[in-house]
Amino acid sequence: MDELNSPGISKRPRPPTSPSDSPPEKQTPKKRMAPGLDAETKAQIAALVVAGINEAIAKSNLVTKTDLDSLCALVQGVKEDSGKLRAEVASLKEVNIKLNTVVSSLKEENYVLRSRLDGLDRQLRQDRITITGLTLQNKDNVIAETKKFLSSIAGHTVELKTAYVPYSSVGGRDIVVAHLTDETKVHPILVSSGSKLKATGIKIARDMPPDMRKRSNRMLRLRWEIRKLCPDKKPTVSYDVLKLAGRRFVWKEDSLLCGDEDGTAVLRDITGKDMTSTITEIVKFRPDRARNTSR
Questions:
Q1: Residue 76 lies in a domain
Q2: Which residues lie within the region annotated Disordered (predicted)?
Q3: Span 99-103, mean pLDDT?
Q4: Which of 157, 188, 206 is a domain's end point?
């Protein structure tokens, strides 16, 4: 005892020298585990979780799988409709090509038929002339006045089958159609009238169907333009046909043709002049002639 209480001797406990000398470890108490959930409870919890997620998705306006399925179905439907539409468009294009071919063929047949009809009509009118601008003193005796006028132009007595006024132009200047006899030739009268009727306002021309008359007037204007640009060229006009350098030019609708060639190009080769603008002006020209067409 004295040794323990004596000064100079440390009172710290000695470290343990063996395992048996160590204090016992403090043991942590184990947590008690909750009893396992049965299958029904798990299913109920899962259903509640899914319902909560669906409700949250609905409130947040997010795209659902149902929406995606509907969208996919819609896109597929549009694709199918687009394919059908393309097929229909392709079919319509083929039909349009066939129709254009038929229409072109019908136009060509119509042109040929009209040309034949014009030819027949021209034969019926070959002994007839029209006198434009003649002022009749007595319209009850058109034949006598017309015979007297034509005889003065021809320089000899001209016999007529008939003469009549189909309509009157503005200003009281009549248009007379005169039907000559077989013995009277039209051409000499036309030639004589060219010089004798200058500056009189009276014009004598062959009687033609309306469409042929329109084409003939265009050719006369074209002949005048060619002579003005190329004085050395000598174009001639017979009815509605222009002849130049051995080539024949005709109007087909509003196009000038020389055989199967473009008439404008052929004229350029013959004359050395580009007459495109002149021909365009001739086609666009519309005479302002108000007529009383009472027959």
A1: yes
A2: 1-36
A3: 91
A4: 206
| H or E element in which residue 115 lies | helix 65-124
Q: Are residues 199 and 134 in the same domain?
A: yes
User: What pLDDT shows up at residue 4?
Assistant: 47
- Whether 229 and 192 share a structural domain: no
Q: Are residues 137 and 202 in the same domain?
A: yes
How many domains does the chain fold into? 3
Answer whether 255's CB lies under 8 Å from 111's CB.
Answer: no
Domain annotation covers residue 116: yes
pTM of the complete model? 0.56
Domain that includes residue 112, residue range: 60-124
Quick check: 243 pLDDT over 90? yes
Listed in sequence order, the residues at least 6 apart from 133 whose beta carbon sits closer than 8 Å to its beta carbon are: 169, 173, 175, 200, 201, 202, 203
Residues 68-79 have pLDDT tens digits of 778 888 888 888
Report pLDDT digits (tens) over 186-205. 888 888 888 888 888 888 88
Long-range CB contacts for residues 273-276, cutoff 8 Å, separation at least 24:
273/229, 273/230, 275/225, 275/226, 275/229
180 vs 158: CA distance, rounded Å: 8
- What pLDDT, on a 0 to 100 scale, did the predictor assign at position 221? 94
* Cα angle: 196, vertex 201, 205; to 5 degrees: 70
10 domain-assigned: no
- Tokens standing for residue 64: 């659902």
Note whether 151 and 193 are within 8 A (CB): no
- The DSSP 8-state label assigned to residue 13 in this structure reads P
Q: Render 35-76 in DSSP notation, one character per residue.
A: PPPPHHHHHHHHHHHHHHHHHHHHHHTPPPHHHHHHHHHHHH
| Distance in angstroms (rounded) separating the CA atoms of residues 151 and 188 | 12
The answer to whether residue 226 is domain-embedded is yes
Give yes or no: residues 130 and 200 share one domain: yes
pLDDT at res. 31: 52
Over residues 50-72, mean pLDDT: 74
Sheet holding 203-206, edge to edge: 160-168, 174-180, 128-134, 203-206
